[in-house]
From TrEMBL:
Highest taxon, organism lineage: Eukaryota
Name the UniProt record assigns to this protein: aminocyclopropanecarboxylate oxidase
EC number(s) given by UniProt: 1.14.17.4
Fe2OG dioxygenase domain sequence ranges: 153-253
Family designation: Belongs to the iron/ascorbate-dependent oxidoreductase family.
Pathway the protein contributes to: Alkene biosynthesis; ethylene biosynthesis via S-adenosyl-L-methionine; ethylene from S-adenosyl-L-methionine: step 2/2
A Pfam family this chain is assigned to: 2OG-FeII_Oxy
Keywords: Ethylene biosynthesis, Fruit ripening, Iron, Metal-binding, Oxidoreductase, Vitamin C
């Protein structure tokens, strides 16, 4: 099997830019995922984020998780659990307004560090969107503008820990799903693995790599690119040893942004293929996603084809 794509972001600034852009294009078209190294976020900041995240879990969340698991009987299940995940999570919102100051139990240093980290991830996400525009033949800024809505994009972070699980064959860390939003940037544990994506009907490990950022395509980019780039199903396998840290940041459209295939791409592809994606308001998509997250994405798209907006014409 082809090796999981790893992109050296620094090479975009030199003689290897063309080859690096081709690697990004290939990853978007054939994997829906890639791993970024030398992405410009300082390693010492990543180390601090990891240290504080793991300290916060041990001090504030680990005991709570154990109590929840015991109350649900998940530590002694005999058959596959299909309605719960083996994860301990909390969420931070950055855009359009931050809620970091309101989230309970965070020490001041952690709040400050996560604000800094989020600003750097936001900048990186916007750089990546412009690189995707370049590869797609769209004008610079098109994807950011498509996400903008009336108040700018939404951007938030899910901080998750996946503790040791006695029955990983029966309880998933996180059940298979695609991500609803735009572009996702993940800072994951470099020692404890567990993230897998579905490629050619086989589950493939996303390799833990120190100081890397894993990038994946969400459902909204699949719609905007008219299926040229696809969101890919992925899952987390719980491990019997070690707690896996996962910090996933979602750069998504604004809640009132209207999402539809880029007309320029439809014009280019009109003779080659006709694959209609619907036009919808992002907030409406998210309401449907909340109900159907762990089901196939295609029915979500189909549900909007009959909406008031109707499909986008290809000619």
């Amino acid at each position: 099997m082809t090796t999981f794509p790893v992109i050296n972001f620094e090479k975009l600034n030199g003689e290897e830019r063309k080859d690096t852009m081709e690697k990004i294009k290939n990853a978007c078209e054939n994997w829906g995922f890639f791993e970024l190294v030398n992405h410009g976020i300082p390693h010492d900041l990543l180390d601090t984020v990891e240290r504080l995240t793991k300290e916060h879990y041990r001090k504030c969340m680990e005991e709570r998780f154990k109590e929840l698991i015991a109350s649900k009987g998940l530590d002694a299940v005999q058959s596959e659990v299909k309605d719960m995940d083996w994860e301990s999570t909390f969420h931070l919102r950055h855009l359009p307004e931050s809620n970091i100051s309101e989230v309970p139990d965070l020490i001041d240093e952690y709040r400050k560090v996560m604000k800094d980290f989020a600003l750097r991830l936001e900048k990186l996400a916007e750089q990546l969107l412009d690189l995707l525009c370049e590869n797609l033949g769209l004008e610079k800024g098109y994807l950011k503008k498509a996400f903008y809505g009336s108040r700018g994009p939404t951007f938030g972070t899910k901080i998750a820990n996946y503790p040791p699980c006695p029955n990983p064959a029966l309880v998933k860390g996180l059940r298979p799903h695609t991500d609803a939003g735009g572009i996702i940037l993940l800072f994951q544990d470099d020692k404890v693995s567990g993230l897998q994506l579905l490629k050619d009907d086989q589950w493939v490990d996303v390799p833990p790599m120190r100081h890397s950022i894993v990038v994946n395509i969400g459902d909204q980019l699949e719609v905007i690119t008219n299926g040229k780039y696809k969101s890919v199903e992925h899952r987390v396998i719980a491990q019997t040893d070690g707690t896996r840290m996962s910090i996933a940041s979602f750069y998504n459209p604004g809640s009132d942004a209207v999402i539809y295939p880029a007309p320029e791409l439809l014009e280019k592809e009109a003779e080659e293929k006709v694959q209609l994606y619907p036009k919808f308001v992002f907030e409406d998509y998210m309401k449907l996603y909340a109900e159907l997250k762990f089901q196939a994405k295609e029915p979500r798209f189909e549900a909007f084809k009959a909406s008031n907006f109707g499909p986008i014409a290809t000619a």
